[in-house]
Each structure stands twice: as structure tokens, then as C-alpha cells.
């Protein structure tokens, strides 16, 4: 009876050990993947945040440049309006104060 019990039990035991070993390997693999996933997600989130931050900076710079141009044009328009009001915006008018040939 021992010969009969020893043979099949050993094969069954070996197959059981293989299944347990494969299950342990699969478990370890899944645990490793699960531990990597948060780091991968964090890296991706950081990359997206950096990209978004750079795009925001670029947009802000463009907005400030455009606003600066508008302010410059507004100031130039105001200066021209003052010159027109004072009669100083005539481009054909030469500077009579520094022109010795001009007689008053």
C-alpha cells in the first residue's frame, strides 16, 4: 500500500507545488505592477502639470506683450491728441526755435 500511496501522492504534490509556485510568481508580478502604477501616474501628472505651466506662461507672456502694445498705442494716440490741440502736430512745421533762418 505504501508503494501505491507514495507514487501518486508525490506526483500530485509536485503538481500542487508547481501551481503554488506559479500563483506566487503571478502574485509577485501583480504586486510589482501595482507598486509601479502610482509612480507612473505621478510622473505623467507631473509631466502634464509642467507642460500646462509652460503653456500658461507662454499665454501670459503673449497677453502681456499684446497689452503693452495696446497701452503704447493708446499713449501715442493721447500724445497726438494733445499735440493736435496745441497745434504742435503739424509735420510740415519745422522747429522755429532752433532754425536761425526763420524770422519772427
Give a written overview of the molecule.
There is one protein chain. The protein is mainly α and 104 residues long. Helix content is 82%, strand content 0%. It contains one helix and no strands. It has one helix at 2-86. The relative contact order is 0.03.
Which overall shape is indicated by the principal axes computed on the Cα atoms? rod-shaped
* Distance from first to last alpha carbon: 141 Å
**Helix segment tally:** 1
Unreliable parts:
none
- The count of β-strands is 0
Proportion in β-strands: under 5%
Q: What is the SS-derived class?
A: mainly alpha
Sheet bearing the most strands, described? none
* Overall pLDDT score: 78
Rg, Å, rounded? 43 Å
Write a concise keyword list for the protein shown above.
single chain; 104 residues; mainly alpha; 82% helix
List the SSEs and their pairings.
Elements: H1 2-86
